[in-house]
Amino acid sequence: MWLLRAFEERVSELVGTGEVSGLVHLSIGQEAVAVGVMDALRASDVVYSSHRAHGHFLARGSDPGRVLAEVMGRRDGLCGGKGGSMHLVDREHGLLGASGVVGGTIPLALGSALVARDAGRGDVAVVFFGDGAAQTGHFHESLNLASLWSLPVLLVCENNGYAEFTPRSAHTKVAHVVGLAAPYRIAARVVDGNDVLAVLDGARELVAVCRAGNGPALLECLTYRLRGHYEGDPAKYREATELAEWREKDPLLRFAPRVSADEAVAAEREARAMVERATVFARQSPFPDPRELTTDVRDPLRNVNG
Amino acid sequence: MRRDGGVVVIGEDVAEGGPYGATRDLVAEFGDRRVIDTPISEAAVTGVAVGAALSGWRPVVEIMFIDFITLALDQLVNHAAKARYMSGGQLRVPLVLRTQGGAGVRSGAQHSQSLEAWLAHVPGLAVVMPATPADAAGLLRAAIRADDPVVVVENKALYYEKGEVADGALVPIGAAVTRRDGRDVTVVATSRLVGEALAAADELAAEGVSVEVIDPRTINPLDRETILRSVSRTTRLVVAHEAATIGGFGAEVAAMVAEEAIDRLAAPIVRVGAPFTPVPASPVLEDAYLVGRREIADAVRRVLRW
Ligand SMILES: Cc1ncc(C[n+]2csc(CCOP(=O)(O)OP(=O)(O)O)c2C)c(N)n1
Fold it and tell me: Which atom of ligand 1 is nearest to A134's Cα?
């Protein structure tokens, strides 16, 4: 969790220095969700992410230097600088895509789950999305499809109470996203998304459901983003008292009693050192050659026709 | 499908064969594991197909009428078309989206459109439009083997055409075909209008006019060379399609020829296409809407009169 926190703090600094440009959504405050869920997975599972993606990649094992280089638009980024913060991919780690389209990766995960179900090895597909995405057609169509086809897909909703600048109550009368699971007979749990062990416990239980062929499953993690929606958002739409309350529930503070003070200090120090090295790596990486602009679009035709 | 176990067909009523019988009998041979009926959820179903493609299958997703592609566009345009690029080449999307468009069956504005130009405008997608039974089979086969997404746009009026189809033949994507050799005017026509252009050429031959008819077959990537070579010889060009003239694919052909070969042209280029209205339902209005042999022949006479 410390790695995710230190990484995002660094990205925020780099937005300040102008070294990171574009829309950047940080997951500060939501680290326990990514870490808890990833710990319940195995290497052959596949994972799809959302626009708030950095934490998912780091928690799954992506190299922090390559993630940062991508966010900075550098050649050694995971995607050679063509993806950027909202479109990270790390195929080697089974991370098949983040998306700038809210809700857009949910059906993609169903597709991978369909292939996994067919292969019969018990692999699952996981997709992270926000509570705002739960109002999209993609989500509602996907609940029905996943349930109809008994797909081994774990839908992880990071309910941070807001979609951009608007509280959940202004978007829906459904208090909890899991409320939508029952009509489709989907296994579901709500967990304290700031308690990494609660997330891990919920994820383990639901991943087991999927592996056993009884998927899909929906895990709703109640959490809060401690920064604005994107870097630069002054977040005037929420009360200082609300923010203060959630600072008390910071996932790092929540986990602290579980380890010794020394361990906590060491974990933070190690994470900050990793981020330091990642920063050096990313800064040293050149920008892509402008000739890369037109590569990776499609195969040349002779391959298509071969 | 016999050749590659990863090829699956997915869409509404595909097991029944669909409204035009295009996938009839597939389920008998390949079973419902590979011929997958879906609920009416175009957005998610297209996403499922994209996700399955990311996980290694070669799905052929069917959108029953191109009019409903509006619902699938997010997955097609934002995900399928861009995954390879955004991932810096880590991902491939070997997806085929089969659909059909076109008017003439009195079904009105929401079941008769020609929307291919939208799709041809999206980097990452290839768009093919077969005009003959052999091309319908050969292009589809090439599309399935391609490692990048291909949209196959059939024309419902052509479903009743009969023609020889060689077993297993591939029709290369991106290769035009000259349907008729001629000296005086080049007509570039797509889909249903290929037959109309050939009929117009017969009519004009009786007047002593020699028309060359080129069928691009793939509208993007376009076989520019075949068109330019022909126009350089005939010095006159008519471009014909069923879609509206404004913003249509014909505008791209006309602009390309103007850029590359305006010095070879003896007359302005003339475009034949639909008026800028929705497709009407009443037979009288729809007949007035549709362009065909007569409009092409008139256009040829016009470029010759210059
Ligand atoms: C389809 C779509 N509509 C709108 C947006 C603009 N947008 C970006 S993030 C966001 C809010 C998403 O809220 P939620 O899903 O709860 O995720 P969170 O940002 O809270 O993590 C919106 C509306 C978008 N990216 N995609």
Answer: 15
The C-alpha atoms of residue B12 and residue A25 are separated, in whole angstroms, by 37
Question: Parallel, antiparallel, or unpaired for β A162-163 and A166-167?
Answer: antiparallel
**Where does A50-191 have alpha helices with state H?**
54-60, 64-71, 105-119, 137-148
Cα A56 to Cα A89: distance, rounded to the nearest angstrom: 11
> What are the residue numbers of the active site of B?
42, 111
Q: For residues B253 and B241, is the Cβ–Cβ distance under 8 A?
A: no
Q: Which residues contact A8 (CB under 8 A, 6 or more apart)?
A: A26, A27, A28, A54, A55, A227
Average pLDDT, chain B: 97
The two tokens of residue A160 are 């941070």
**Which of A164, A176, A224, A230 gets mutated to test ligand 1 (max ligand atoms within 8 A of its CB)?**
A164
A75, A41 contact by CB (below 8 A): no
Q: Which domains does chain B have, with CATH numbers?
A: 7-160 (3.40.50.970), 177-305 (3.40.50.920)
Neighbours of B204 (CB within 10 A): 21
Each residue's pLDDT tens digit, B196-236: 999 999 999 999 999 999 999 999 999 999 999 999 999 99
Q: Tell me the longest C-alpha to C-alpha distance in chain A.
A: 64
Is pTM beyond 0.90 here? yes
CATH number of A2-13+25-285: 3.40.50.970
Helices A261-284 and A2-16 cross at an angle (nearest 10°) of 40
Between CA B18 and CA B3 the distance in angstroms is 23
Mutate to test the interface with B, among A87, A108, A123, A139 (most CBs of B within 10 A): A108
Q: Which residue of A105, A141, A302 is the best one to mutate when testing the B interface, meaning the one whose CB has the most B CBs within 10 A? A: A141
Q: State ipTM.
A: 0.96
Could you tell me the two tokens for B271?
């475009």
Interface contact flag, A83 B86, Cβ < 8 Å: yes
